[in-house]
């Protein structure tokens, strides 16, 4: 299958929701996709062969800035066009019709699915002012990081709203 005009070849992947593996240039985009709840692998030690192998074996969509990588056989990919992370995010969201239904279900640091934490347990893990303003907490069972819908959540909603508004103008 030849790449289309947008530099994508995604029909091969076929996972719903889509899963990703990102190249070394796309660490910030990786964190955004994880914040949205999308399974995204990223490791700065992985070379091109490894990235291609993972994309192929696990039927993940390869996110890359490197046109050479997209020429590998049997890989679904999106060739990321822009250096700015919000433009990169916008490209992926528009290409695959992503949404925020799964936001904050996955650890931004290590990609592990989060577990619910009761307020009682959260009391041991977060500062008092957070406990007094938030009711839902989640924790990464792998790295222990605790998440709640605080400033990062608000910021993410603002950014997503901006992206949607931009779409409307086109
Ligand atoms: Zn984690």
Separate helix tally:
7
The average pLDDT value, as a whole number, equals: 89
Give the total of domains. Answer: 2
Q: Which structural class should the secondary elements be placed in? A: alpha/beta
Total E-strand runs: 8
- Nearest-angstrom radius of gyration? 17 Å
Classified by CATH, the class of the largest domain is: Alpha Beta
From the 3D coordinates, which CATH architecture of the largest domain would you assign?
3-Layer(aba) Sandwich
Give, in order, the helices and strands: EEHEHEHEHEHHEEH
Percent range for β-strand residues: 5-15%
Strands across the major sheet, in which order? 1-5-4-2-3
Instruction: List ligands, each type once.
Output: zinc ion
- Low-pLDDT sequence parts: none
What is this structure's SSE topology?
Layout: E1 8-9, E2 20-22, H1 27-35, E3 40-41, H2 48-57, E4 61-64, H3 67-70, E5 77-79, H4 85-96, E6 115-117, H5 119-122, H6 128-133, E7 137-139, E8 146-147, H7 151-169
Parallel strand pairs: 2-3, 2-4, 4-5
Antiparallel strand pairs: 1-5, 6-7, 7-8
Helix pairs in contact: 1-4
This protein binds zinc ion.
Zinc ion (ZN) binds next to loops.
Give structural notes.
The protein has helices spanning 27-35, 48-57, 67-70, 85-96, 119-122, 128-133, 151-169, and strands at 8-9, 20-22, 40-41, 61-64, 77-79, 115-117, 137-139, 146-147. The protein has 170 residues and is of the alpha/beta class. β2 (20-22), α1 (27-35) and β3 form a beta-alpha-beta unit. It is globular, with a radius of gyration of 17 Å. The two termini are 29 Å apart. Bound molecules: zinc ion. The site of zinc ion has 8 residues, from loops.
């Amino acid at each position: 299958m030849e790449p289309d005009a947008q530099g994508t070849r995604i029909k091969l992947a076929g996972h719903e929701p889509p899963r990703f593996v990102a190249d070394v240039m796309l660490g910030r985009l990786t964190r955004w996709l994880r914040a949205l709840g999308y399974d995204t692998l990223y490791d700065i030690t992985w070379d091109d062969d490894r990235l291609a192998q993972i994309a192929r074996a696990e039927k993940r969509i390869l996110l890359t800035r490197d046109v050479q990588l997209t020429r590998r056989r049997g890989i679904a990919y999106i060739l990321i066009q822009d250096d700015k992370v919000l433009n990169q995010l916008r490209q992926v969201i528009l290409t695959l019709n992503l949404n925020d239904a799964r936001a904050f279900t996955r650890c931004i640091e290590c990609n592990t699915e989060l577990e619910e934490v009761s307020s009682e347990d959260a009391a041991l893990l977060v500062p008092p002012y957070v406990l007094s303003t938030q009711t839902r907490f989640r924790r990464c069972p792998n790295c222990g990081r605790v998440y709640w819908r605080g400033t990062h959540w608000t910021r993410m909603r603002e950014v997503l709203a901006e992206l949607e508004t931009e779409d409307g103008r086109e």
